Amino acid sequence: MDDKNNKPIPLTESEAAEIRAAASHYPDPSAASIEALKIVQKHRRWVSDNNLQAVAELLGLSAAELDGIATFYNLIYRKPVGEKVIHYCDSVSCWMLGAERIREHISKRLGIGLGETTADGRFTLLPIVCLGACDRAPAMMIGDELYGDLDEASVDAILTREDRHG
Amino acid sequence: MDKPLTRNIKPDLAPVTLAEYRRSGGYEGLKKAVTAMAPAEAVATVKEANLRGRGGAGFPTGVKWSLVPQAAGQKYVVVNADEMEPGTFKDRLLMEGDPHQLIEGIAIAAYAIGADTAYIFLRGEYTLAARRLEQALQEARDASLLGRNILGAEFHLDIHLHTSAGRYICGEETALLNSLEGKRANPRTKPPYPQTSGLWGRPTVVNNVETVCNVPHILREGADWYRGLSRSQDAGTKLFGVSGRVKKPGLWELPMGTPIRELIEDCAGGMQEGYTLRGFLPGGASTDFLLPEHLDLAMDFDSLQRAGSRLGTGTMIVLDDATCPVRIVLNLERFFTQESCGWCTPCRDGLPWVVEILEGILAGRGRPEDLDRLEKLAWLMGPGHTFCALAPGAAEPLQSALKYFREDFERYLPVSPALSLRGEEHRVPLLEGERRAAGG
Ligand SMILES: Cc1cc2nc3c(=O)[nH]c(=O)nc-3n(C[C@H](O)[C@H](O)[C@H](O)COP(=O)(O)O)c2cc1C
Ligand code: SF4
Ligand code: FES
Questions:
Q1: How many A from CA of B54 to the centre of ligand 1?
Q2: A130/B88 touch (CB, cutoff 8 Å), yes or no
Q3: Does B125 contact A95 at a Cβ distance shorter than 8 Å?
């Protein structure tokens, strides 16, 4: 999806209201930039270049400044993603306990490599750093949900359930 | 054995409600502080208790608070809940299991330094902790434990939850302040320290979640009681964790100074069947490896420092005999490379170089001088050469692996003179555990 040539997209009323509420917690509204980007992402799944202008204006930043911030953070998606993002942990304890095997299993089952999205637009697979669930390694997150002690069978069950719901 | 930090946490990990927290004596520490103590007395109590920071560096908390100027004016308390160091999973439990303990600790800290605004800087992935903290903050506001004239005193406080978006460097306290201000998370020059010039240039105390969770108990029970919890000169209890191939990975609250052996063998049940302990990172990804011969060391700041490592976050990563030390170091250094903020040269350029050399060694393209180059790079990234402690932290597992597991690096080097004399092809000798795993 290349929308580089498109015009800036305005925020919806509810997005703008949520961003203003977040900004009210700080003496300077630009402090809410990350929260604002996350609000946009919650509504639109990812943050395209065309979303930046309207957010920047609301927070008193330039689009370039906001872009610099947006690209710094791993959880702000700057490219289209599926409805649910699978973040599998590739950090040390999960790696030791078979994260790579789990990753291959997910890839095979869904037919996607790292950074790719399933044809039906349901799942995107991305690595993530330690999820703070090392005692339940290997671990992954799907959307807001954390899953630990993974093996091939539990991954199958989780993916089936996640595909059916929400 | 008294376990103040986790005594309210339920086996099913459902959050402790405000009513339950109050029944167990919750908010009594805050009440004592705001009704019976001057702010300076609260600071003095924490100083006497000898509480040291649980975020990794072990700085004395009371001393940190006492460096905040006493003059009135805008000041802030910031809680570091970024917890992104690989192998670390302790603050999550405290926030998910007993959010009011953290809120009470923040309120006492704010009273002690004269702040009326506090922020919890929470990593973005901790969505359950975010929901529970928001709920607990609302409960506290509804009960007038936050807001104006808290517990009838001349003390006002608002606490805001700020959720981040995933970048390890945000855990470094000055990068955290930039991130909280909405800027890119590059660290700031120190001095000035946050205590005098922090958030928006105002005096600010940054403390780790676990550090702050100790504070209500210290205020309620007193400094002597708190020091008495410990088995060594560092006061209190601490959350200690183990991950890796042990029987029961997990997290336990133990007295400071508990021997490592008790944690790994008694709490975590020792190694899984068929695996042997080769070493461990005692306090997360950015600490130096230690060996089985160090198992009887006391887990406190000074003992581990003397042994050439650090207590760090107190969450251990165990290395077994089927995991290659070179590969584990490569995994760690890839993490640090990816998370470097790119501000200073030894870190920005040194780390990718380390990764490249390690990849070359593992691919059979290594040369004997590569090990010296890795040692030099570890030194270059070490203390005093970089803007923040990320690169020195990255150097710790590398330098200690080169020291303790040198033969594991050497086994990949193809040009052993003896082999080439005989004209044989180099075959990497297997580790004990690798041989077993391969069924040989
Ligand atoms: C790269 C880097 C990451 C850090 N991450 C964290 C973190 O996630 N949580 C934390 O409490 N401290 C972290 N620290 C340490 C903080 O800079 C700071 O020392 C700490 O928050 C102070 O709190 P304490 O005195 O209560 O320990 C990190 C330091 C560095 C250099
Ligand atoms: S040491 Fe690394 S993370 Fe720290 S300031 Fe330098 S480049 Fe950034
Ligand atoms: S290493 Fe995967 S959750 Fe910590």
A1: 8
A2: yes
A3: no
CB B413 within 8 A of CB B368: yes
**Co-location of B385 and B288 in the same domain:** no
Residue pointed to by tokens 């660290």 = B187
* Domains of chain A and CATH, by start: 13-72 (1.10.10), 84-164 (3.40.30.10)
From first to last of the 440 residues of chain B, give the pLDDT tens digit.
799 999 999 999 999 999 999 999 999 999 999 999 999 999 999 999 999 999 999 999 999 999 999 999 999 999 999 999 999 999 999 999 999 999 999 999 999 999 999 999 999 999 999 999 999 999 999 999 999 999 999 999 999 999 999 899 999 999 999 999 998 899 999 899 999 999 999 999 999 999 999 999 999 999 999 999 999 999 999 999 999 999 999 999 999 999 999 999 999 999 999 999 999 999 999 999 999 999 999 999 999 999 999 999 999 999 999 999 999 999 999 999 999 999 999 999 999 999 999 999 999 999 999 999 999 999 999 999 999 999 999 999 999 999 999 999 999 998 655 555 555 566 787 887 888 877 75
| 3 state DSSP class of B254 | strand
Judge whether B2 lies within some domain. Answer: no
ipTM attached to this prediction: 0.94
- CA-wise closest residue to B290 among B269, B251, B266, B263: B263
The finding on whether B59 has its CB within 6 A of some atom of ligand 1 is: yes
Same domain, B309 and B332: no
Q: Which ligand is nearest to the CA of B88?
A: 3
> Could you tell me if the CB of A96 is within 6 A of ligand 3?
no
Name the residue type at position B436. R
Q: Which CATH number goes with the domain that contains B136? A: 3.40.50.11540
> For residue A34, which residues of chain B lie inside 8 Å, CB to CB?
163-165, 179, 182
Residue B6 lies in a domain: no
Both ends of chain A: CA-CA distance in Å? 24
CA distance A53 to A7: 10
* Residue A91 touches chain B, beta carbons under 8 Å: yes
Contact pairs from chain A to chain B, CB under 8 Å: 130
Residues B315 and B284 in one domain: yes
Tokens 């010296």 belong to which residue?
B372
Kindly report the CA angle at B42 between B31 and B174, in degrees rounded to 5? Answer: 110
Is B175 a domain residue?
yes
Query: Cβ B328–A96 below 8 Å, yes or no?
Result: yes
- Say which CATH number the domain at B372 has: 1.20.1440.230
| B161 and B223 in a common domain | yes
Label residue B237 exposed, middle or buried (CB < 10 Å: 0-12, 13-18, 19+).
Answer: buried
CA of B404 to the centre of ligand 2 (A): 27
Our CA-based measurement puts residue B315 at a distance from the nearest CA of chain A, in whole angstroms, of: 10
